[in-house]
UniProtKB/TrEMBL annotation:
Xref: InterPro entries: HPr-like, HPr-like_sf
Name of protein: PTS HPr component phosphorylation site domain protein
Domain HPr: 1-43
Species for this entry: Leptospira wolbachii serovar Codice str. CDC
Gene3D superfamilies: HPr-like
Length: 43
């Protein structure tokens, strides 16, 4: 992933483009992260 930081305010709209063998998987993972407000279950 080539993204290090993305500074957006509440309600901002952004577009993401993925290209590669696992692009659908990557976009789904990003969608889940956004839906969870970037909270993960990392231990």
């Amino acid at each position: 992933m080539g993204l290090m930081m993305l500074a957006l305010g509440p309600g901002s709209i952004f577009y993401v483009k993925a290209d590669g063998k696992r692009e659908e998987e990557a976009l789904l993972a990003l969608e889940v992260l956004v839906a969870r407000n970037f909270e993960t279950n990392a231990t």
